[in-house]
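cache lookup: miss for this entity combination. No prior model stored, computing from scratch. Input as submitted by user K.M.:
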Amino acid sequence: MGLQTPFYQNHLDSNAKIVDFGGWDMPLHYGSQVEEHHYVRQDAGMFDVSHMTVVEVTGQKAKPYLQYLLANDVDKLKESGKALYSGMLNEKGGVIDDLIVYYIDETHYRVVVNASTREKDLAWMTQQAASYAVNVKENTDFAMLAVQGPNAIEKTNQVLSANQQQAVDGIGVFFAADCEGYFIARTGYTGEDGYEILVPADQAASFWNKLLAVGVKPCGLGARDTLRLEAGMNLYGNDMDEGISPLEANMGWTISWQPEERDFIGKAALLAEKESGVKNKLVGLVLEGRGVIRSHMKVVVEGVGEGETTSGTMSPTLKKSIGMARVPKATSDSVMLEIRRKLVPAKVVKASFVRKGKALV
Amino acid sequence: MSNIPNDLKYISSHEWIRVEDDGTVTIGITDHAQELLGDVVYVELPEMDSEVALEDEVAVVESVKAASDIYAPLSGTIVAVNEALEDAPETVNSSPYDDGWMFKMKPSEPSEIDGLIDAESYQNEIED
């Protein structure tokens, strides 16, 4: 038996198929992963993401610490509740993790990191904190629930208190409202609108049941993966890792080069990489022949070289197989994929396949 | 609890085999197999009229999770394939023993049928 989140009993009550995920007992699906995927594209679904790690960074030097720790610049955050997506890099410019950092105030930032990278992230953040007047501490008071889909906000608002409803009224994308112990962020990992909510752990089960009562459907990790892939969002450990630079992982936009005087971990390596020429890029693929793209398939780029798929699935929305692949920079608009010893053609696209219920490819 | 019809034969890689009155056999995957796989999203069927040998990999079923090979339970010729699965692979989940059948064969070594296991033996195998 692994670690259990505060929603564990709710999962059992909804007939979840429970699997081990990085030491946690998590729901893979509640019957049909594909149906859950469609709930989120068409209505509203909820995902237990309590296995993700919340880290509070506090202290006088919280801001300069994070400006050095992260490739994106927390100086962009000026309003309480505003969020920023960033890579946390090592000295070689490899991605230790991707994360979201929320600005609470100048001396308090809340960082949400992946579950699978919890220990190394905490160790790295603590190690880097040594030379700053900051406190880095994991916060385990919360359960975390993502409610996603075109009707997610409306349905969630129905179960919030009057004060909370007021707090989230008109909240922008990538903003969070902190109200009555709930931290309600308009973020997500599905390509649909919705919230990611930190819920006091002792209220998690009842909050879940209230959402269930207004028609929000439980969705498992399986649907979470197909939704994020359709949305073209990277999965840590698949699409990038410590050996991969953000410049080769479609994360160039998350690196803040200005102001030039700001140094951050990995910056020198990234500058050197740009200087010598970035070799590969992460692209989207749409399979044109029959089959299903999976990770670690060989990609043959005629006249250019070879690459490898990093993620792949049968897209429930597009009813075609889609994926991501790291390929030589000179790759243009078509490649061949080696699927069971046969070469199958695939179209190269921007890694963003479905957003807000609409096909983009 | 998986459904394991008594009138079918099985092999331990989770295919079922129905011996038809005309001597051909129909093959699909068991209810237990489709449960293990999860939502089936893609089926690659064998080629019509191809000659296959016992235990050849002849077809592929892919679910949201993984790809699984389907093995020939007998030697023989492929005489029919269920093309409806190409557009509706989820039929393998909803009706594994009926509409979700995969292909039919004309056995070349009818004695191989004696090597197939019955429902009770298959039940015992999946309980282990």
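stored under new cache key. Chain A touches chain B through 16 residues (CB under 8 Å).
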